[in-house]
Amino acid sequence: MLFLLFRIMHIVTGVFWAGSVFFMVSFLLPAFGQVGPGAGPVQAELARRKLFQKLPAIGIVTILSGFYMYYLRMRGTAGWAPTMEARVLGTGGLLAVVAIIIGATFARPNQDRVAALMAEAGPMPAGPEKDAKFAQAGIHRKKVVMAARIVATLLGVTVIAMASARYL
Known about the structure:
By secondary structure, this protein is an all-alpha fold. The chain has one domain (about 1-165). The chain has five helices and no strands. The chain has helices spanning about 1-35, 40-50, 50-75, 85-120, 130-165. Helix 3 packs antiparallel against helix 4 (about 85-120). The longest helix is centred in the middle third of the chain and has 38 residues, at about 85-120. It is elongated and about 70 Å long.
């Protein structure tokens, strides 16, 4: 029963985490890039709703529940560790850890900087100082997009690993 509860928690949080990242990389970040400074209020609202704190927390719950299930399988089934299923699940779990590290150390700090620069530039009158803030925000935004694409790729491979491990 405990394994089932952790499996449900792992799947629900994993779908939310990976789906949110895929949505951001595929639709939200490109839309922000096209809209430019007009995206500032939406970015500020996402920050106000603490998306960039909640998403990593959901990722951590996903990873911890996955590692706990992995531990239960290792403990409960002699000889499971060297199987292809165990190796694929383990690799998927490690990729998820790398994804959350990249998100936390590269994407989030740069996203925070973009939000701060956009908030500073918002009330400023048009001119070179405001343009400089937007240019700085653009540099950080490119870093966010690059990191988010890497995270999405890692999570995509992770999802494939989790979905296919049992059948290998």
